[in-house]
Design a protein that fits this description.
This protein has twelve helices and 13 strands. By secondary structure, it is α/β, with parallel strands linked by helices. The strands form four sheets. Strands 3-2-1-4-5-6-11 form a seven-stranded parallel beta sheet, with helices on both faces. It has a two-stranded parallel ribbon with strand order 7-10. Strands 8-13 form a two-stranded parallel ribbon. Helix 2 crosses helix 7. The chain is globular, with a radius of gyration of 20 Å.
């Protein structure tokens, strides 16, 4: 990333304050971090919120405009585009664990969003996808992300696609899910296969910073970037880091991925707020990593080591956390 002159930051802040960014998925884990980062960069932020009885989980103390609409509501999405300069597309249906949801939100929802953005004359679209996204992938979530990418590329909109590794941080569906599962595990913790799948966890604020910065870089238009954290860790090593942070000591044992997938499928249908879905195992089926120097080389950002960013897991009773989430889910 190019260096700014001493006068440029003030100029950029002045210009950004007039630009409206529409964020989809703004109430999600990554979305909240991106909204915080955009606000710090003095952008005006609007987020698309689907109609719900629940109060939207937006970052506290940050001014955000809300546009109430489903991604599939063409009229609502067009209305949300009024006055928008750029779009950050983060919405996805993986949390629900449904392939039907993926086709509706990730595939069809992206098509509706792109068409509305074209009609509104949006100048930039940034999409966060996953490492390993391919139309021919055996895994539904990765197929859906690939179809969304292709829709964006064929749209003619100036765009940037950031394919990310697993993202972690407070409120994630990765380390906190592991913490809760460790909390309810009876002395042992099963790992799919040998637990040696290579991961490259990226801290959520690092990824959010890259998303915000990419809006300013003309050289990133039309590019697809594979990014991850600064280290390769096996799943076993990640679980060990989470055990250390939470004070949970479990005996790690190998288990059949097919068996664990079946148990997870059953849990999805029994618990109102399951800590993970079968899509979680799709990411662990094979190693998906990027170059270790991707963030410094592409964005000029020194990424965080995972061991330095897990304090949010400390001093919490994750067994009670798991039980509370099931009882409070509506």
């Amino acid at each position: 990333m190019r260096a700014l002159s001493q006068a440029e930051p003030l100029y950029c802040d002045y210009v950004n304050s007039f630009l409206m960014i529409l964020v989809t998925g703004g109430t999600g884990f990554l979305g909240r971090a991106v909204i915080r980062q955009l606000s710090q960069s003095d952008y005006r932020v609007r987020t698309l919120i689907r109609p719900s009885r629940r109060s939207p989980d937006l970052p506290a103390g940050i001014p955000v405009e809300a546009a109430i609409s489903s991604l599939l509501d063409k009229r609502g999405v067009r209305a949300a585009m009024v006055g928008v300069d750029s779009v950050v597309h983060l919405a996805g249906a993986e949390r629900g664990g449904s392939e039907i949801g993926l086709r509706a939100v990730d595939v069809e929802g992206t098509r509706v969003l792109v068409e509305a953005a074209r009609q509104a004359g949006v100048s930039r679209l940034v999409y966060v996808s996953h490492l390993g996204a391919e139309p021919s992938s055996a895994y539904p979530a990765l197929r859906a992300k690939a179809h969304a990418e292709n829709t964006i590329r064929k749209s003619g909109l100036p765009h940037t696609v950031i394919r990310s590794s697993l993202v972690y941080g407070e409120g994630d569906r990765f380390t906190t899910s592991l913490a809760m599962l460790l909390g309810i595990s009876p002395g042992i913790f099963p790992l799919p296969g040998d637990g040696n799948t290579a991961l490259q966890p990226v801290w959520v604020d690092d990824l959010a910073t890259c998303v915000a910065w990419s809006l300013d870089e003309e050289a990133m238009i039309g590019q697809t970037y594979d990014v991850g954290g600064p280290e390769f860790l096996t799943l076993r090593q990640v679980v060990e880091l989470v055990m250390k942070a939470t004070g949970s000591h479990r005996w790690l044992v190998s288990a059949s991925p097919l068996y664990l997938r079946g148990i997870t499928w059953l849990i999805q249908r029994v618990l109102p707020n399951p800590p993970l879905t079968t899509f979680w195992f799709d990411y662990l089926a094979s190693s998906r990593t990027a170059s270790l120097d991707a963030l410094p080389r592409i964005f000029g950002l020194k990424p965080s080591m995972m061991i330095d960013r897990l304090r949010y897991l400390e001093e919490r009773n994750w067994t009670l956390e798991f039980m509370g989430r099931q009882l409070s889910w509506t």
